[in-house]
Amino acid sequence: MKKILFGLVVGGVIGFALGIYSLPILIEWRAANDKPITEQVFTQSDPKGQFDRNSPGSDALHWGEGTVRISSGKLFFGEDVKLAPGPDYRIYMTKKFVDTRDGFSRIKSQALQISKLKTFSGPLEFELPADINLDEFDNVIVWCEAFSQYIASARLD
């Protein structure tokens, strides 16, 4: 009897954990067709950055990679952008570059939230506030709000 009860508890915990992990992946599949991405021609002077999968704050479950650009008042995640799936992701822009959970936690109150993120791969586009000063806010951070977890960051040059 104890073995059966133990098996049910372990199976329930594993099933619950797999459900929490896979739900964002299922949501991404539906959200991918929500909004068409406009064609955009970028210039040499458009700010550009890279999410680095090997940044100090990344790990096997929290990472991002790919190209980020700004043009015509919009933030673009390139076709090469891939993020580890998870719940409640947000995109922020900051004045200071950070690449760890503690680093972002220290400056989060000065960060500018751009959008919620519903999908984990590009191409994606997001409207920027009309009054944003891109000379100051020149870093992009992806953050998991639900677990206060750093995902990725890019310095725009």
Overview of this protein structure:
The protein has 157 residues and is an alpha+beta fold. It has one domain. 24% of the residues lie in helices and 30% in strands. The chain is built from two helices and nine strands. The protein has helices spanning 2-31, 101-107; strands at 48-51, 64-71, 74-77, 82-83, 89-94, 112-117, 124-127, 139-144, 149-155. Strands 1, 2, 3, 4 and 7 form a five-stranded antiparallel β-sheet that branches. Strands 6-5-8-9 form a four-stranded antiparallel β-sheet, with helices on one face. Strand 8 (139-144) and strand 9 form a beta hairpin. The chain is elongated, with a radius of gyration of 18 Å.
Question: Could you give a short description of this structure?
Answer:
With 157 residues, the protein is an alpha+beta fold.
Ordered list of secondary-structure elements with their pairings:
Blueprint: H1 2-31, E1 48-51, E2 64-71, E3 74-77, E4 82-83, E5 89-94, H2 101-107, E6 112-117, E7 124-127, E8 139-144, E9 149-155
Antiparallel strand pairs: 1-2, 2-3, 2-4, 3-7, 5-6, 5-8, 8-9
